[in-house]
Amino acid sequence: MQNILNQKNMNIYLASPRGFCAGVERAINMVEEALIKYGKPVYVRHEIVHNKYVVDDLRSKGAIFIEELNEIENKQRPVIFSAHGVPKTIPLEAKNLNLVYHDATCPLVSKIHREVEYFESKNLVIILIGHRNHPEVIGTMGQVSSKIYLVEKESDVTKLKFDKNKKIAYVTQTTLSVDDTKSIIKAIKKKFPYVVEPQKDDICYATTNRQEAVKKIAPKSDLFIVIGAKNSSNSLRLVEVAKQYGAKKCILLENLENFKINNLNNILNIGITASASAPEVLVQKFIKFIGKNYKIKIYEEKSKKENVFFKIPQQLKSVI
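Now predict its structure.
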């Protein structure tokens, strides 16, 4: 007897672009190249990117994930720092332990590190717009000896007690919601007229592009699925954007196996995206899963092409 669900239609609206950004691809490639060059195991400080599928895949190939360098049992083995960036104390610690290390910090995060160094050299008060305890924020705040003032929401700006005529500067965590940062930046400028801005927008191109893609299809979606991790800032922001821009319901999906087909009861239109740290294979697996139960029609709008590519360090490239 034919499954009744197969008689139902389902429209799938795919966000484009979606999935891996250049910084994530570079970080993953660095771990894979290190495994080729040095053999197993290769240590990685913190999850290389926030995605269980990626971490588990690299672990199966020989990566060992740690949170602190003192967890490394064999100090002869190399270690790679995650894409989120690390405080300056971490490379110093690695040198003191005589470790071979490679830094997979996303170049766009490194740009912010250089900005805070520059602002400190100009004796400016530095404000960081970001989320407390996120690895990228911890890394950025650890680039300078001066205190960096963290602002998480607009109301935090009112708590800053500097003289309004003092020259200040701000930087932004790369994975935040573009819309949320606009209101915070506006509040900073209103309170402090002598504010120095970054030369370019700190929200990374991939974050912006993925959020804009979600905005286009969220209003069409009875249910919006963001494939990503709960500890991934850019995943959480995509959920927020989908809700703000008209999706009737939104789910952050980390493990495809946990998704129940009855979640699609009374759903005709699904929006789907993947965070910048989630691979395309998860999107295709999820679509295939829906296709086993529904007659699906896929709509994918043409969107901005991403031609950004970040090279891995020359010393990590395998010798053929």
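The domain at 22-106 is CATH 3.40.50.11270 (Rossmann fold).
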